[in-house]
Write a structure and sequence with these properties.
By secondary structure, this protein is α/β, with parallel strands linked by helices. The strands form 8 sheets. Strands 1, 2, 3, 4, 10, 11 and 19 form a 7-stranded mixed sheet that branches. The protein has a 6-stranded mixed sheet with strand order 14-13-12-17-18-20, with helices on both faces. Strand 10, helix 3 and strand 11 form a beta-alpha-beta unit. About 26% of the residues have low confidence.
């Protein structure tokens, strides 16, 4: 009997659903669950393994495995697997073919129609590459159709809940590797996207996994970096540790903390991770995703009040913190699918069926909310309800960590099915342990101040309607002036604080004690006549000078410990080949002000957490910058066969100088005969900084260079018109001066040494 097939070809996991006899069913692709890892392993005998089989072999044959290649679609730099180059679409084709073969083998015939979903922000170029993948998979293009992932999610939801024609729904799709936000309007024939979909291509469950692994790595004090990367035993132990990190992350959906066993050749111990710590690691990225949703709403010309509900789909969207943040920030009802990671595959199967003639438009009667609309059959899951094995895609992630003194979301949450344990209190919750307190949103004492982050869209920019997090009384949020002004202001504040404290105590001694009100003012209490004893928090002290000196000594000791804790975090990041400024910590009356430039949001949060945990720190004011996306020397950049990153740049009035961290690959950089660097200003687009080729179009100004450690030149040679831009950039060029990838280098702010 004929059937239609829907495929969700995800970044980390792939799922499929079939539609037959007016009903859609999730197809179990894996050994123990419906979804399979989006992993391809190419053996030396030509055998292609995918999914669970590839995952099992990956530990012993890591050089022959490819992961997360969906993120690389459109990147002209090949993916090296087993020593051979492959394009992302070629690897996607192998995975797609294996899914279709598995379905055909079990069903006994080919599907009459196949629908494949894709991110909503993919343009014609990536859609064309996806079409090429279909051709490479030996599928008939005439039998294949495409739809966006938000459309598929909305169609799936409409099969379970009534959505009136004309109603607008927002889709918040957070999967394993990407985030999509889109606005859809219900039509007579399905859904249409309105406005411009927004997305974050590198945000998902795998990034959350990486944050947990980084947390463990920091706790091990460099033990992982000391391992021999060529030692198979060490590789297997690290792979096991990564899996345990994922397992611990999933365990937090039922527990408030989890213990991660560490069984490395050089250390055997355990690392504890609490739910609050994890949420602190991922919160900045979630804030970015909510801002992307706001942009999608604005692009559709709508207000949030025009949205009937927000659909949460994608496996990672079941993090209860997400439902809380989306509900409280957007102020709309939240709808959570019973199987959010299956919703897209199911929606694709409905779409495939409708494409062959089924009617998806007929809404159910008003008094039949539980009845699926005509033409959209009920959803069934062809797998047991038991929890999935840890090695598979995480179906949910975490319950909220109960935190006192924080208001719970007031927006009601609607759900088409029983929500996960630990969901926000507004939704009907299933039976839970009586000992588990009601989760409430966590206050953000260390949330990053987005207006200080010098990053381009779609990075978060605080709006006037949002309260600036973590500002002390009288503190003014910086509104401009760039990095130099803010760091200068922090330096002045540090001098005032440290100078005031030490002048009033360690350098002043008894003289400071004799002047109670002035000492009180330095300590942050401007009440006239307040004694030093009161500032210290001890109303019974008789010797005010002694008490004041004790406060100063205490702050100095706290500052030393906090500085050491912050530096330990950034030292570990630097050991990974990533770059941060040395953090600056100033402590006044127990309040720590942290400044510096961080590599990424998790590092920033880790620094704040490390300072917050220091004994005696009562509050943390976060005045750190996070490098802009194109300033980071990411692991993805360093995984290229050859790369170059600028880590420091200055202008002394005569020369532009830069420090470079690079890897030329098999042979050294050479301008005349092989690969080299193109160095240019950020006032030109990277694609113009190379002769016309695969990834470059020419037209810009650049300077060729082959010293992989440093760069010195005059502005006239490297910048358009000799005008010094804000940043200097680098990319790898071919012997013919073309760029075969735009992701082989970074940009870096130029420090003007001539500025007063």
């Amino acid at each position: 009997m004929s059937y239609q097939l829907g495929i969700d070809l995800g970044t980390t996991y792939t799922a499929a659903a079939i539609h037959r006899d007016d009903r859609s069913t999730i197809f179990s692709l894996g050994d123990r669950s419906a979804a399979i890892p989006s992993v391809v392993l190419l053996r030396d005998d030509g055998t292609v393994l995918t999914g669970d089989a590839a995952e099992r072999r990956a530990v012993t044959e890591p050089e022959r495995v490819a992961r997360e290649f969906k993120r690389r679609l459109g990147d002209t730099t090949p993916i090296i697997v087993g020593g051979s180059p492959y394009s992302s679409e070629a690897l996607m084709a192998r995975l797609l073919r294996s899914v279709v073969d598995a379905v055909e083998k079990r069903e006994g015939e080919a599907a009459t129609r196949i629908a494949i979903s894709h991110p909503a922000n993919w343009g014609p170029y990536k859609i064309d590459l996806l079409t090429q993948a279909v051709t490479l998979a030996n599928l008939d293009p005439d039998s294949v159709c495409f739809l966006t992932e938000p459309e598929a999610a909305a169609i799936s939801y409409a099969s379970q809940e009534r959505i009136d024609p004309g109603a607008v729904v927002a889709v918040y799709d957070l999967g394993g590797g990407t985030f999509d936000a889109a606005m859809l309007r219900r039509t007579d024939n399905g859904f249409e996207i309105i406005g411009r979909p927004e997305g974050i291509e590198r945000l998902g469950g795998i990034d959350f996994d990486a944050a947990v692994f980084a947390h463990v790595s920091r706790a091990l004090d460099g033990a992982i970096q000391q391992l021999d990367p060529e030692d198979p035993t060490a590789l297997a132990a690290v792979a096991r540790l990564r899996a345990d990190c994922v397992e611990a992350k999933e365990a937090l959906s039922a527990d408030t903390d989890a213990t991660i066993p560490v069984l490395l050749p050089n250390v055997q111990t355990e690392v504890r991770l609490t739910r609050r710590e994890f949420e602190g690691l991922i919160r900045p990225s979630l804030v970015d995703s909510i801002e992307a949703m706001r942009r999608a709403v604005r692009s559709a010309g709508l207000e949030m009040d025009d949205v009937s509900r927000v659909l949460l789909v994608g496996g990672s969207s079941r993090v209860p913190l997400i439902a809380q943040m989306v509900s409280s920030e957007l102020g709309r009802p939240i709808a959570v699918d019973a199987h959010p990671k299956h919703a897209i595959a199911l929606g694709a199967s409905y779409f495939a069926a409708s494409d062959t003639g089924s009617d998806m438009a007929t809404p159910p009667p008003a008094d039949a909310a539980a009845t699926p609309p005509a033409g959209i059959p009920p959803v069934t899951i062809d797998e047991p309800p038991a929890p999935e094995a840890p090695a598979e895609a995480p179906p949910s992630i975490f319950e909220d960590d109960p935190v006192p003194d924080a208001p719970a979301p007031t927006t009601p949450v609607v759900s088409s099915s029983p929500p996960p344990t630990g969901a926000p209190v507004e939704r009907p919750a299933p039976a839970a342990s009586a000992s588990e307190p009601e989760p409430t949103p966590e206050p953000e004492p260390v949330a990053p101040r987005s207006s200080s982050i010098s990053e381009p869209p779609p990075r978060l920019v605080d709006t006037p309607s949002e309260p600036a997090p973590l500002t002390s009384p009288g503190e003014v949020e910086p509104t401009g002036g760039g990095r130099g002004m803010l760091i200068g202001a922090i330096a002045v504040a540090a001098v005032v604080i440290i100078g005031g404290i030490f002048a009033a105590t360690q350098l002043g001694g008894d003289d400071a004690a004799a002047d109670g009100p002035e000492t009180s003012e330095v300590a942050g209490d401007e009440t006239s006549g307040t004694t030093a004893s009161t500032v210290a928090g001890d109303d019974t002290a008789d010797d005010t000078a002694t008490t004041t000196a004790a406060v100063a000594r205490s702050d100095a000791e706290i500052q030393a410990a906090a500085s050491a804790a912050a530096t330990a975090v950034t030292d570990e990041v630097t050991a990974l080949g990533l770059f941060t400024d040395e953090p600056t910590v100033v402590v006044n009356d127990g309040v720590a002000i942290v400044a510096g430039t961080m590599f990424d949001p998790p590092t920033r949060l880790a620094v704040v957490k490390a300072v917050e945990d220091v004994d005696g720190v009562t509050n943390v004011i976060d005045d750190m910058f996070v490098q802009a996306e194109d300033e980071r020397c990411t692991i993805a950049i360093q995984n290229n066969e050859r790369f170059a990153c600028i880590t420091e740049a200055t202008w002394d009035g005569t020369n532009i100088s830069a420090t470079i961290h690079s890897d030329p690959g098999p042979v050294p950089f050479d301008i005349g005969s092989t690969y080299h660097m193109h160095i240019f200003g950020d006032d030109v687009a990277p694609e113009t900084a190379g002769a016309a080729g695969d990834a470059s179009v020419g037209g810009g100004t650049w300077q060729v260079w082959d010293d992989g450690e440093s760069f010195v030149s005059t502005p006239g040679k490297v910048f358009t018109g000799g005008v010094i831009p804000e940043r200097i950039c680098v990319r790898i060029a071919t012997p013919t001066h073309t760029l075969d990838s735009l992701r082989t280098g970074n940009c870096w702010p130029i420090d003007d040494l001539t500025a007063s």
